Predict the 3D structure of the following.
Amino acid sequence: MTVAYNESYLDDAMQNLGDMVEYAVCDCDFDPDEFFAWFISSGIASKFEKGNPKYVSGMSGFELAEAVLKATNITHKNIAPSHPDFKGREYWAGWIFAYYQWQSGRRFADIVADGLTLSAVMGMYIHHEADNSKFVESANAIIRRNKESRKSKLHTIRKARGFTQGQLSAASGVSLRMIQLYEQKQNDLGKAQVNVVLRLAKALGCEVEDLID
């Protein structure tokens, strides 16, 4: 298992992300996914997910939320955190999301792009009394299903260029069957021979990196 940062910071990170989400959603009444998008675009998520001590343990959840809002120029009423005795699904969602990011070693932006949004995590509150591993299993299943159902980048770019699979095969010299397998994700284009990817990228007028899922 490749974790994101030293485990000694994990408890603080989970608590602070939980407090941040609780404050943003419950006290400030922000939409959870919109606020989490601000968290990512602010650059603070990147520092948090790398275990920067200032962000994972040196700031409270309230201070994290304030930093996000300041960095993204979001105007809001100056609301003090309510610090409720009962920590509900909003707190738990931030808390377990911090654990999942640490455990997976992936960026928050990539996790969200794969369909595990903050609101989706809130909807998994049924796991709040279970071992964290149960949430990880369910989260991985959601991401796996989303990846399987999502069109490949090769398919998306080919369609945008107006190519049929047969036309792309003729233009690139890559067999029609291979293109079909790459688009269906039965074969991983990221593991293909370099000259295959280069020919496809040249035929489509894009960079190699644009085709790799």
Notes: The chain has a mean pLDDT of 94. The longest helix spans residues 10-27.
